[in-house]
Write a structure and sequence with these properties.
The protein is mainly alpha-helical. A five-stranded parallel β-sheet has the order 2-1-3-4-5. Helix 14 links the parallel strand 4 and strand 5. Helix 2 packs parallel to helix 10. It is globular, with a radius of gyration of 24 Å. The relative contact order is 0.13.
């Protein structure tokens, strides 16, 4: 048997060893976090805008060719901007302006904010930036690539996502955003997406973009297998369209926000500061609610004093929730896109017609 003194010394050693392991783990964790933060910052400074999203990267190049100082209005958002806002039609309804569609597929609010900050920080920014409102993306192992989350998670966007998740005490989502940030810092996501783009329709997009200033309706890309399949599945069973309409209607009418849809203080604060930063550089930031988007109204309720083009309310715009204007459950067809664009132009003129002056 061990003596009491010997046993005591062993226990003391175990405690010290355990204490040492914890300190070493914490030191390594802190070093790892600092390394990831440094890499994210470097990527943000050096990587070209849109490096993790092939279509967006091409559109940024095309946007620069269009000469930013000749663009008055820029639309920023998801595929509901990319596929649904006809800039030629918008320009014909709003005399004297020239607009560009910088919407992109596989994107989310984090990447949209980054694009806006890039536009505002460039020389001769446009007078108006119209930003689609969305909820913070809900990430998972399945959709992390789909949302282009690797590109979106630079240092500032990761801090924003972490703040929102902590405010909601959603620690599972906090973990997912942390994983996305780590993947981004290692450029895993970007490399995979660039490799995928080599066999994707991205080069067709480049050709189609010529003269369209970023707008490509879904109807024009029925030769893409994934898009044609979505259309076919919708036509076989369009019943989900009414379910989506009712969800949008309830969200719009729900002025007392449920606990799981509470306005995100961190996101609200960030969007308010973004609007202020835009104003300081002479840019008018306006928010946009597109039809069939869930999660937009809770965000908008947090920024009620900021200008917003609301086309998402089924009671006010029933035509944008009908089968005849649908490509699939979440997107409009070309006829619907024209209605949507006309609606945006009308709301835009209501807000800015008195002081509209596009001279640089």
């Amino acid at each position: 048997m061990l003596s009491r003194k010997h046993h005591s010394s062993i226990s003391s050693f175990d405690v010290k060893s355990s204490s040492f392991d914890v300190k070493r783990f914490l030191a390594r964790l802190i070093a790892f976090c600092l390394l990831m933060a440094s890499i994210l910052w470097i990527l943000d400074q050096l990587a070209p805008l849109g490096w993790g999203n092939a279509v967006l990267a091409e559109k940024v190049v095309d946007f620069k060719k269009e000469q930013q100082d000749a663009i008055d209005v820029v639309f920023v958002g998801s595929s509901r901007v990319y596929r649904q806002i006809d800039v030629d039609l918008f320009d014909s309804k709003v005399p004297g302006v020239r607009s560009y569609n910088l919407g992109s597929p596989d994107s989310n609010l984090l990447s949209h904010i980054k694009i806006v900050e890039h536009i505002v920080g460039a020389p001769s920014p446009p007078k108006h930036v119209i930003l689609e409102i969305q909820a913070l993306p809900h990430l998972s192992v399945v959709n992390r690539h789909k949302f282009g989350s690797y590109y979106a998670h630079d240092l500032d966007r990761t801090i924003l996502a972490a703040s929102v998740c902590c405010g909601k005490q959603d620690f599972l989502q906090l973990k997912e955003h942390a994983v996305a940030a780590i993947d981004n810092s290692l450029k895993v996501g970007g490399l995979l997406r660039i490799a995928k783009s080599l066999s994707h329709q991205v080069f067709q997009d480049r050709v189609a973009l010529h003269g369209r200033r970023g707008f490509i309706p879904l109807d024009d890309e029925m030769d893409v297998e994934e898009i044609a399949q979505r259309r076919s599945e919708f036509l076989q069973d369009p019943s989900e369209l009414e379910v989506r309409r009712l969800k949008c209607l309830r969200e719009r009418e729900n002025t007392s926000v449920a606990n799981d849809e509470q306005d995100d203080d961190a996101l609200t604060f960030y969007l308010q500061n973004l609007s202020t930063d835009c104003s300081d550089t002479g840019v008018q930031l306006t928010f946009l609610i597109a039809p069939r988007v869930l999660g937009a109204y809770p965000v908008q309720r947090g920024i009620p004093n900021l200008p917003c083009l609301d086309l998402g309310d089924p009671s006010q715009h029933p035509e944008l929730h009908q089968f005849e204007t649908s490509f699939d459950v979440g997107h409009l067809n070309q006829a619907g896109a024209k209605m949507f664009t006309r609606g945006i132009a009308e709301e835009f003129l209501k807000l800015f017609s008195p002081q509209l002056n596009t001279s640089k």
